[in-house]
Design a protein that fits this description.
Layout: H1 2-14, E1 22-23, H2 31-38, H3 48-71, E2 74-80, E3 87-88, E4 90-97, E5 100-109, H4 111-115, H5 122-135, E6 139-146, E7 152-158, H6 161-179, E8 182-183, H7 194-198, H8 202-208, E9 213-214, H9 215-226
Parallel strand pairs: 1-3, 5-6
Antiparallel strand pairs: 2-4, 4-5, 6-7, 8-9
Helix pairs in contact: 1-3, 5-6
Length: 227
């Protein structure tokens, strides 16, 4: 009945999510996983329950953004980075506090992760570093929201040009590999790395082995495994 309809709605929305350009969230992530997304490699399906949780997080973030608007400190929201060839992304907000400008990025999480959060997560820092880089704003705030209790934690992030340039350099290298159809090597600490724990390409990644692999050869291999 309704449950089946709602589950199907979420699963259909996830279908055919082929990627054609980099998003800010790809910065600092496993190159091989991003490569697989570009090549639309079959991935483990996410449960509709998890997809609904993502939506729930987005609603909570919208509520916090409305609160910031009510405080009169938001200069802009949902701001796209300036168009350029490599990457696209949209920062949640730019605010003014005590005459200083900050890029703000919201992140929502469950109680267990929130409780143990003593410093900003590395992938979130990478993301905000790129916003600071593209907007030429020296400071940002990562605002974490506990989805279960609505508690907040915030961390100040200062622009580090070396980090931002390194992230962009890595994406540029990955772009070359995507064009050359060369699957990047696995993460050095595979499978312990936290990204591997949540990776939707875990199975296919283990089939590909540790080193760089030619995509055309590997594609034939996975197609023959399907037969
Ligand atoms: S399993 Fe780990 S190394 Fe393999 S693609 Fe996923 S994140 Fe990358």
């Amino acid at each position: 009945m309704l449950k089946e309809l709602l589950d199907k709605f979420y699963l259909d929305r996830e279908k055919d999510k082929e990627q054609h350009h980099f998003y800010i969230t790809d910065a600092g992530k496993c190159s091989r996983a991003v490569f697989f997304k570009f090549k639309n490699v079959p991935r483990e399906k996410m449960e509709p329950r998890v997809l609904r949780m993502f939506d729930h997080g987005d609603y909570i973030q919208m509520q916090i953004l409305n609160n910031l608007f009510s405080l009169g400190i938001v200069r802009a929201s949902e701001i796209k980075i300036p168009p350029q060839e490599l990457i696209s992304g949209r920062a949640d907000a730019i605010v003014t506090l005590n005459n200083e400008i900050y890029v703000v990025d919201f992140k929502s999480m469950n109680s267990m992760v929130f409780k143990n959060l003593e410093e900003p997560k590395e992938d979130n820092v990478n993301q905000i570093q790129l916003y600071l880089h593209f907007f030429k704003i020296p400071k940002g705030i990562l605002l974490y929201i506990n989805k279960d209790t609505l508690e907040l934690k915030e961390f100040l992030v200062e622009y580090n040009s070396a980090v931002a340039k390194n992230l962009l350099g890595e994406l540029s290298d990955l772009k070359t590999k995507i064009t050359a159809n060369l699957i990047p090597q696995r993460l050095i600490d595979y499978p312990e790395n936290w990204q591997c724990q949540y990776c939707q390409f875990k199975e296919i990644c283990s089939t590909a082995g540790a080193g760089e692999v030619k995509w055309d050869d590997f594609k034939k291999k996975i197609e023959s495994l399907k037969d």
